[in-house]
């Protein structure tokens, strides 16, 4: 059965990119179905208001619990407005292979914990725990992901507490900066997750070489021509010696990680040879 993503937002048009490129193709191929729901459908007053002033005072507005509660109940049960039509892909991609698809590549699942029947509710928030590649790998196995996009100061916290009866809940941040709402963060997370769903990107190797998959940043890459504006591709990449190329890539990756994200090295699985190389870099 196709994996399912539902998104709740007061700006459903923000989710239009879902219909394009890789995400759109996954929808077309029946690998993924997506429901995007306008939260205001669950608003009951005549102005369809979704927010109110915060208890305790202070600036900004807080999203009201009643509307979120009803919306999340409906999305979990696929009842009410949540049972309406699914998103369709913007472009016909079927039968058009992508450059990174390989014939006969085995569909690979990332391991995950034993199933819990409850869907996974993801609440993007600058106050959430940092979203990581390892989360994307785990969530790529989830049959049903629901994203709750907050705006303003955030969603009344009781919505998150109450949702735990129906959902497993994760509050995550996509970085140490503040966006206007959870919509763009949802697109970021959904893209990171969906590209790992088996069959979406044909080439499994391309995930395994991703930055972060082994805890390091990926090094630079090159294509033809060999010389461009007097700049040459590193000689070793033309050598045809796979072992030398692999070692060069590993060292480029270690070098870049040391320069840009040294804290990642503490958690990365490093060999004795990696450590020796890092020592030579630190001494130079
Ligand atoms: N909403 C606003 N800012 C955000 C962030 N940095 N991450 C996730 N959701 C957000």
From TrEMBL:
UniProt-listed Enzyme Commission number(s): 2.1.1.228
Gene Ontology BP terms: tRNA N1-guanine methylation
InterPro entries in the record: Alpha/beta_knot_MTases (IPR029028), tRNA_m1G_MeTrfase_C_sf (IPR023148), tRNA_m1G_MeTrfase_TrmD (IPR002649), tRNA_m1G_MTases_N (IPR029026), tRNA_MeTrfase_TRMD/TRM10 (IPR016009)
Gene Ontology terms, MF aspect: tRNA (guanine(37)-N1)-methyltransferase activity
Gene3D superfamilies found in the cross-reference section: 3.40.1280.10, tRNA(m1g37)methyltransferase, domain 2
Residues of the tRNA methyltransferase TRMD/TRM10-type domain: 4-78, 118-267
Keyword annotations of the record: Cytoplasm, Methyltransferase, S-adenosyl-L-methionine, Transferase, tRNA processing
Homology family: Belongs to the RNA methyltransferase TrmD family.
Record NCBIfam families: PRK00026.1 (NF000648)
Name of the protein in its database record: tRNA (guanine-N(1)-)-methyltransferase
């Amino acid at each position: 059965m196709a994996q399912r993503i539902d998104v709740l937002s007061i700006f459903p048009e923000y989710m239009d990119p879902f219909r394009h490129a890789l995400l759109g193709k996954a929808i077309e191929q029946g690998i993924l179905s997506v429901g995007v729901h306008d939260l205001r459908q669950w608003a009951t007053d005549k102005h369809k208001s979704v927010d109110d002033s915060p208890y305790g005072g202070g600036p900004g507005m807080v999203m009201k619990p009643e509307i979120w509660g009803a919306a999340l109940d409906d999305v979990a049960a696929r009842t009410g407005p949540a049972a309406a039509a699914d998103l369709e892909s913007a472009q016909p991609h079927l039968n058009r292979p992508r450059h990174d698809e390989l014939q006969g590549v085995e569909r690979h699942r990332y391991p995950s914990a034993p199933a819990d029947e409850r869907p996974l509710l993801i609440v993007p928030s600058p106050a959430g725990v940092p979203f990581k590649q390892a989360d994307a790998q785990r969530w790529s196995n989830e049959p049903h992901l629901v994203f709750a996009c907050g705006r303003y100061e955030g969603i009344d916290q009781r919505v998150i507490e109450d949702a735990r009866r129906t959902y497993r809940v994760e509050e995550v941040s996509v970085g140490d900066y503040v966006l206007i709402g959870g919509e763009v963060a949802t697109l970021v997370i959904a893209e990171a997750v969906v590209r790992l769903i088996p069959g979406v990107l044909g080439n499994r190797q391309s995930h395994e070489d991703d930055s972060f998959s082994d805890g390091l940043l990926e090094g630079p890459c090159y294509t033809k021509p060999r010389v461009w504006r007097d700049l040459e591709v590193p000689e070793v990449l033309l050598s045809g010696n796979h072992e030398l190329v692999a070692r060069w890539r590993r060292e480029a990756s270690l070098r870049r990680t040391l320069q840009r994200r040294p804290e990642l090295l503490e958690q990365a699985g490093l060999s004795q040879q990696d450590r020796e190389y890092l020592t030579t870099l630190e001494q130079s």
